[in-house]
Amino acid sequence: MTLATGRVYQGDCIKLFNEIEPGSVDLVFADPPFNIGYEYDVYHDERSDHEYLDWTKQWMAGVASALKPDGTFWLAIGDEYAAELKLVAQRECHFTCRSWVIWYYTFGVNCTRGFSRSHTHLFQFVKDPKQFTFNGDDPAIRVPSARQLVYADKRANPKGRLPDNTWILRPLDAPDSFSADEDVWYYSRVAGTFKEREGFHGCQMPEQLLGRIIRCSSNPGEIVLDPFGGSGTTLAVAKKLGRQWIGFELSKDYVEKINDRLGGTQVGEPLDGAADPLRSAPPTPVAPKTRKHRTVTFHRKKLVRE
Ligand SMILES: C[S@@+](CC[C@H](N)C(=O)[O-])C[C@H]1O[C@@H](n2cnc3c(N)ncnc32)[C@H](O)[C@@H]1O
Question: Could you tell me which CATH number the domain at 7-303 has?
Answer without folding.
Answer: 3.40.50.150
